[in-house]
Amino acid sequence: MQGASRLKEELTNPSNPQRSTSGVKRSRELRHALLQRKIQDNPFLTDSEIASILGVSIHTVRLDRLALGIPDSRERTRMVAEKVFSTVRSIRSEEVVGELVDVVLGKSGVSILETTQDMTLERTGVVRGHYIFAQADSLAMALVDSDVVLTGLANIKFKRPVKAGEKLICKAEVIRKKGNKYVVLATTRSTSGQVFRGKFVLASLEDSAGVGSAKEGFSG
Fold first, then answer.
1. Dihedral angle computed from the Cα positions of residues 140, 144, 150 and 151, in that order, rounded to the nearest 10 degrees
2. Could you tell me the pTM of the whole model?
């Protein structure tokens, strides 16, 4: 953050001697270097978040990204998700709600969902709950290293309404495994705090009967 503070001072202080042509160029080069470093550290940062860190406008961040050939946060998230998804067996990419950005099979994972206007209730502008649930449920399924996985039980709680434009980060952890059953704890947060939590019980049904054995998979 020290570099970002120095950059902000150079860009905003009109009496700063660095505000010559060479100084402006130096500030731009410093800003570019900081932008690249921040995105390398966290590829999921939005233009708005980067602008706040660097103390510049969102428009400046977008121009800098274009100059450096850096895609926007949605594309960066998608690229990370493509790499992560290669290890997942239990669910297809088109069936996942959100983007899987980190998965350790049998242990834990992270999903990011960029909420949009078409996910909301028209009258209230609140994101429909099934999107938030499905993000957590699909992440929980992805953690199970099996070709056939079904959710048998979900104990969930919505903590507060979510508006379009909020970025939801869901983190899930396998907290217990017994036989073919997995218990997964998932929590979803936005920048303003926790919005959802849930405990899922899933079953791996890897046998010749496949989905037909679902009843037996959850019994006991």
1. -30
2. 0.69
